[in-house]
Design a protein that fits this description.
The protein is α+β, with helices and mostly antiparallel strands and 319 residues long. Helices cover 28% and strands 37% of the residues. The protein has helices at residues 22-32, 46-57, 72-82, 108-111, 114-119, 151-162, 170-184, 242-254, 263-266; strands spanning 2-9, 36-40, 62-70, 88-94, 121-134, 137-143, 146-150, 188-194, 199-210, 232-238, 267-272, 274-279, 284-288, 291-295, 297-311. The longest helix has 15 residues, at 170-184. GO terms for molecular function: kinase activity.
C-alpha cells in the first residue's frame, strides 16, 4: 500500500512554532524519500475541512498519516474527519497549551521528534462519541481525550484567557485558572445517569468523562483511564468546601486523590460504556479536548479501537 504523510500546521499553536517546522519536515522527507504534503490551517475547523477533502480526493489504497501540529483542538478536528476511514492514521506533534492526550503514551518530547513520528508504528485507541442537544438542535462528534464539566471546565475557560498573556505556559495557565476559580468555586447542577440505572442528581463540583488520564497540561485527574480498554472513566466530585478542595488538589494533580482520606464520600469514580448528562436548569458549558460548548443534554458512548494512533519510540542508534 502506498503511504503519504500530511502535516497540518496550526499557526496559532506554540506562538508560531508549528510554522517553523516546515524546513525540518521537508529535509527529513527528502532524506527518507517520503511522500509529504504540508498545509497551514487558516481558521477554526479548517483542519477538519481540509482532512475531509483530502480523504475525498485520495485513493483508498493509499495509507495517509495526518500530523496535528498544534494542540489537542487541532487533533480533535482531524479526528472528526478520519473516523470510519481505515486508511487514515493520526499523529500529534504537541505544540498546544495542554498536549494532554500524548501524555498517556509516555515522554511528550518523543512526540516532538519528527523523524520518530514519521517512522513509528501505530496503536489502536478508543474514542468517545457524544451527542449534545440544546434548544432543539442536536450534534454528534468525537472526542479522543476528555470532557470536563463544572469546576474543571471553568478552569479551562479561564486558562484559555490567561495563556494569551506573555510568559504564561499551558500548565501555568491551568494552575492560575485553578487559583482564580477557587474564589468562585462554581460547579454544576446536573442529572447524571449511569448505564446500570444509578443516578446522581444535584449539585457537584466537577465531572470528567475520559478516555485518557490527563487534562490541564498534565493534571492526572482521571488516573485509571486507559485509551484501549473499551471503557470511559467517569470521575465525579461532589460539592465541597474551598478548604477541602485545596487539601485535595495536590493529590488530584498527581492522580493520587482516589486513595485520600474521605475520598470515598466525596468522589464517584466508575467505568462505563455509555452515560447521559442533563442540566437541571439552564444549559451548561462543557469542554471537549479543551474546546468549549454549551448543552442542555449530552449522551456519551465509547467506540473501541476507532483510531490508528502514531506512538513514536526512540530510535536505537540515537540512544
Amino acid at each position: 500500500m502506498n503511504r503519504k504523510h500530511v502535516f497540518l500546521l496550526n499557526p496559532a499553536a506554540g506562538q508560531g512554532q508549528a510554522i517553523g517546522m516546515r524546513e525540518q519536515i521537508e529535509n527529513i522527507s527528502q532524506r527518507l524519500s517520503l511522500d509529504t504534503e504540508i498545509y497551514e490551517t487558516k481558521e477554526e475547523l479548517d483542519a477538519q475541512v481540509f482532512t475531509s477533502q483530502l480523504i475525498k480526493n485520495n485513493d483508498v489504497d493509499t495509507k495517509i498519516r495526518l500530523y496535528a501540529c498544534g494542540g489537542d483542538g487541532t487533533a480533535n478536528e482531524i479526528l472528526n474527519a478520519i473516523i470510519g476511514h481505515d486508511n487514515m492514521e493520526l499523529a500529534v506533534i504537541p505544540m498546544g497549551t495542554g498536549n494532554d492526550f500524548v501524555r498517556n503514551f509516555g515522554d511528550v518530547e518523543l512526540f516532538r521528534n519528527l523523524e520518530y513520528q514519521m517512522t513509528a508504528d501505530t496503536v489502536k485507541t478508543d474514542v468517545i462519541r457524544y451527542t449534545w442537544k440544546r434548544q432543539g438542535f442536536s450534534c454528534s462528534r468525537y472526542c479522543i481525550n476528555m470532557f470536563n464539566i463544572g469546576f474543571d471546565c471553568n478552569v479551562v475557560e479561564m486558562a484559555g484567557k490567561l495563556k494569551k498573556k506573555p510568559l504564561i505556559s499551558g500548565s501555568m495557565a491551568y494552575l492560575a485558572g485553578v487559583a482564580a476559580m477557587l474564589v468562585k468555586m462554581k460547579g454544576a447542577d446536573l442529572k447524571v445517569e449511569f448505564e446500570d440505572g444509578k443516578v446522581f442528581d444535584g449539585k457537584m463540583l466537577l465531572i470528567a468523562i475520559a478516555n485518557g488520564c490527563f487534562c490541564g497540561g498534565g493534571v492526572k485527574g482521571v488516573p485509571k483511564a486507559l485509551t484501549d480498554d473499551g471503557f470511559m472513566d467517569i470521575s465525579l466530585i461532589r460539592k465541597c468546601s474551598r478548604r477541602r478542595f485545596i487539601q485535595l488538589f495536590p493529590k488530584y494533580a498527581k492522580g493520587e486523590h482516589l486513595n485520600a482520606k474521605g475520598a470515598d464520600k466525596l468522589i464517584i469514580y466508575r467505568k462505563a460504556k455509555t452515560l447521559k448528562i442533563t442540566a437541571n436548569g439552564e444549559p451548561f458549558t462543557f469542554s471537549t479536548d479543551g474546546e468549549l460548548t454549551k448543552a442542555k443534554e449530552i449522551e456519551f458512548e465509547i467506540v473501541p479501537g476507532a483510531v490508528d494512533f502514531v506512538v513514536p519510540q526512540q530510535i536505537e542508534s540515537n540512544k
